[in-house]
Amino acid sequence: MLTQRYEAPTTVADAVRLMQADPQATPLAGGTDLLVQYRVGLRRPSAFVDLKRIPGLVGITLDEVGMRLGAATSAAEVCEHGEARRLWPGLVEAVGLLGSTQIQGRGSVGGNLCNGSPAADTTCPLIVNRARAVIAGPQGERTVDVDGFTTGPHKTVLAPGEVLVALWVPRPAAGTGDAYLRLIPRSEMDIAAAGAAVSVTLDKGGTCTAARVAIAAVAPTALLVPAAAEALIGTKLDDAALVRAGEAASAAARSIGDKRGTAAYRRTVVGVLTRRAASIAAARARASH
Amino acid sequence: MATIYFSAALTDFTGGIESLTVDVPRVRELMQAVTERFPDLADPIEIMAIAVDGEVYQEPDYLKLGENSEIHFVPRIAGG
Amino acid sequence: MSAERTFEYIGTRPIRHDGLDKVTGRANYGADFTLPGMLHGHVLRSPHAHARIVSIDTSAAEATPGVKAVITGKDIPKTNAKLSLGEAAMELGPMGDNALAHDKALYEGHAVAAVAATSPEIAREAAEKIVVVYEVLKPVMTVDQALAPGATILHDDLVTKGKPLADAPKHTNVALRMELKRGDLEAGFAAADLIVERTFTTPMVHQGYIEPHACVARYGEDGQVLVWTTTQGHFIVRDASAGILGIDAAKVKVVPSEIGGGFGGKIPVYLEPLAIVLSRKAHRPVKMVMSRDDVFRASGPTSGTKVRMKIGAKKDGTLVAASASLYYEAGAYPGSPAGAGAMCVIAPYTIPNFMIEAYDIVVNRPKVAAYRAPGSPAAMFATESVIDEIAQKLGMDPIDLRLKNAAQEGDSAPYGPKYGPIGLKQVLEATKAHPHWKAPLGPNQGRGVACGFWFNAGLNSTATVSLSADGSATVVTGNPDIGGTRVAQAMMVSEELGIPVERVRPTVADTDSIGYNDLTGGSRVCYATGMAVIKAAQDARDQLCARAAKIWDVDPSCVAWERGRAIPLNGASDKEPLTVSALAAKMTATGGPIVGRGAVSAPMAGPGFATNICDIEVDKETGVSRVVRYTAIQDVGKAVHPSYVEGQMQGGAVQGIGWALNEEYIYDEAGHLENAGFLDYRMPVASDLPMIDTVLIEVANPLHPYGVRGVGEVPIVPPLAAVANAMAGATGVRFTDLPLSPPRVLKALSGA
Question: Which candidate from A189, A264, A268 shows the least CB-CB separation from C685?
Answer without folding.
Answer: A189
